[in-house]
Specification:
2 domains; mainly alpha; globular; binds magnesium ion; Arc Repressor Mutant, subunit A; binds adenosine-5'-diphosphate
Amino acid sequence: MPQATGYLAYLPAPLPPEPPVELSPETIGLLSRADQALGKLDGIAALLPNPNLFVGMYVRKEALLSSQIEGIDSTLDEVIRFEEGQDAPEGKRLRDTEEVVNYVRALNYGIRRLAELPLCLRLIREIHAELMRGVRGEGKAPGEFRVTQNWIGPQGASLANATFVPPPVPEMTTALNNVETFLHERNEHPARAHYPVIIECALIHAQFETIHPFLDGNGRLGRLLIALLLHERRVLSQPLLYLSLYLKGNRLEYYDRLTAVRKNGDWEGWTQFFLKGIEQTAQEALETAKKIISFREQAIRTASSLGSTEAKLLEFLFGHPLTDIQTAQKHLEVSYNTSAGAIAKLANANLVREITGKQRNRIFRFTAYLELFEESA
Ligand SMILES: Nc1ncnc2c1ncn2[C@@H]1O[C@H](COP(=O)(O)OP(=O)(O)O)[C@@H](O)[C@H]1O
Ligand SMILES: [Mg+2]
């Protein structure tokens, strides 16, 4: 629709889509496979020893991949080093890593908060505040919906040659209220017919990207919403799904599918694309969980055969997969030499590896474990 100032902005139709999303046999097949994969993933969560420890790694992985989609340049090691208070690898800026750490905090915050209130606009703003806190986000109105027009386009594009101009502020507000109503529908009228939860996730994500209610962080927030909705609707008791792996691997199609929803109302195409991603990443996350379980058993056996300090050190490494001799020493309450000796033994057994190549401030990486989370796609 042309605006007073002459540019064309997009006014999103409300949810649920009209006509309704067609549940063709193909879509139903994809839905049932995605559901099954999520069910298996949720089942294995109960088998994870010390789930918090392992789920934390999944959350970091999702945070990293979702941030990478937006060009944020960081790695799992950098995120862990930042959290451990270690120096960043030489020549790396901390800013990008901080944004990933913010994402981890925002997701954990959202999950905690869902115990107190339903997924709603207020919670969305609170999570945005967590995500954008600090460096780059500060100037981008953290926690506030925009009060000016924005647009999506290649770097340096202006309103005039933007790829996509989201709704003006008044229409944005209407569309956001509609999203909230749509989210509450299921809570308020559980007996009515609703879209299956995974399809609801697909609808909410696409609609959120079209509304683009923040000055920045819309992509990441929209992806956080998927994890939070799966949690709120009790599809996954823990945030174990890293869907961003799929969205990153298929980034161009991801954007094209969103565009087709807006341009042609192609909700079916977007939904199918989304369901495929859920099945694929749920299966991968399940494989990862199985590997963690068997790796852990085997590593415990190896470390225990080396000695009791080594066994304790191993347990510590699962929570702190990048560490140094002093930190381990403090935790194990042993002498410096005992700590260094235990680390050397685990290094001999190929469980850890020194990564700095230096003589001082050496960092040991629990490589055998971290490899299980390394990107496969
Ligand atoms: N053509 C498009 N139509 C709708 N949404 C789009 C389109 N292209 C990109 N997007 C969405 O916009 C996001 C980027 O928006 P932005 O506010 O910069 O988020 P972030 O700061 O998290 O990068 C992408 O991740 C994608 O979800
Ligand atoms: Mg951005």
